[in-house]
Design a protein that fits this description.
heterodimer, A: mainly alpha, 8 helices, globular, B: six-stranded mixed sheet, 10 strands
Amino acid sequence: MSLLRVAWLIARKDLLVEARSRELASTTLFFAVASVLVFAFALVRDGAVPADAPAGILWVAIAFSGTLALGRAFERERQSETLRALLLSPVERPAVYVGKLLALLLLMAGVEAVLVPIVALLFGAPIGRAPWLLFALLATGTLGFAAVGTLFAAMLVRARSRDVLLPVVLYPIAVPVIIAGVRGTSAVFAAEPDFASAQTWLTMLVLFDAVFVTLAFWTFEPVMSD
Amino acid sequence: MTDVQTLDVSRHFGRRRALSRVSLTFKAGEIAGVFGPNGAGKSTLLGVLSTLLRPSSGEVRYGGRAASAWSDDLRGQIGMLGHDLFLYGDLTARENLVFFGRLYGLARDGKLDARVDRALDAARLTERAGDRVSEFSRGLRQRLALERALLHEPALVLLDEPFTGLDDESASLLAARLRTLRGAGRIVVMATHDFESADGLVDRALAIRAGKSRELPVAAGGPLRQRYQAALRGDWA
C-alpha cells in the first residue's frame, strides 16, 4: 500500500475515533476560545485594541490548544498500546507519522475556523482584508508547528512526564514558526497593512515547513524503532 | 518461515539487562511456552522477536535471514497479542478488524469482509460486531485481540499472557485455536504465568530468569509448575 493511502487510513481512523468521543475537539476548542476571551477582557479597553495584539493572541491560542491536542492524540494511542500495533504493521513507518499529522492538522484547522472569526469579532481583526494570504499564513504556520509537535509527541508517548516535557522540547524548536506566523499575521492585520512583509514571512514559513516536515519524516522511523 | 532463531541476543534498558545472551530456536508447528517471574525478560523476548525492540547485541534470524535482510513485509508475517491488547476502545469490534486488515493489505484481494466475519465468528463476537470495544469485558477484548493478531494469518504468533481474563470455556477455545495454529505449521511463542492452561498445550517450555533462558526438560515429566520451580532453584550463573 502506498504511503499516502496508509496515512489516510490512519488519519481517517483518528477522525472516526474523534467523531465518536469529541474529546479532543471539545477540550481544544474550549481552551482556545477561553484564552482568547481572557485576553479580550484583559486588553480591550473602551473598544480600543493594542496594535499587533490580535495576531499574537490568535497564535498563542493556536499554539497552546495545538499542544493540548498533540498530547491527547498520542495518549489515546498509549492507552491500549495501539501505537505499537501501528508500528508492528507491515507499512512504511513514516506513513504512521504522516497519518497522525494529517489528523491533527484537520483538527487544528477546525479549531482555527472557529477561532479566527472570534478574534475578528472581539479584537476587530480585519480577516477579510487579504483572506488568501491570511489562510496561507495560518496553514503553513499550523503545518510547521504540528510537524514538529507530532514527532515530539510520538517520541514522548512512553515518557512518564510527557505532559510537562512536550511543551519544554516543542516550543524552543517551534518558536521560529510562531514568530513568523505572528509577524506575518500582524502585517496583514495592521492599520496600514504591509502585504510585502506578510509575504516574506509566508516564504519563511514555507521554508520552515520544508525543513521540519523533511526532518520529522526522516527521523520518525529511527526514533520509534525502540 | 520455518524457524526463528535468537543468536546470543542481549537487550539492555539503560543499565538494566533485560535479556542476557539468549540463544533459542523456535520451529514451525511448535508451541513454545515462556515462563518466568515478573520482570524476568519474557515480554522483552517477545518484543525482540516481534521486531519492536532491537537487540542491544546478538541477532534474530527469521527463516534463516537476519531481520535487517527483510523489508517491511517481515512484520506482515508476525502476529502479536500484547498484554495491552492493541485495540481502539472507541471503534467497534468490526471496525478494529477492518482497520488492521487494511493496514496489513488484506483489502487488496477483496476478501477482507469474509476474513473479518470469520474472525468475529472465531471470537464468538458476531452478535456484538457493532458494539464499541470499550463496552466489552476484558475476556471479550482478549478474544477479539487474538483474532486481530491472527487476521493476516501470520507465520510467527507471539502471545503475551493470552489466558488473562478468560473464563474456562474461552481458555479451552484459545487452547484449541493454538493447537490448530500448530497443526497449520505456525510458530507460536507464548509468555504466560498460567501453568495449568499451558500444561499439555506447549511442546516446549522455557524458563526465563534475570534475562537468562533455560529449557525445561520434557523428559523430566511431572506438572509444568513443578519442573519450572525445580529449574528456578537450579544454578543460573
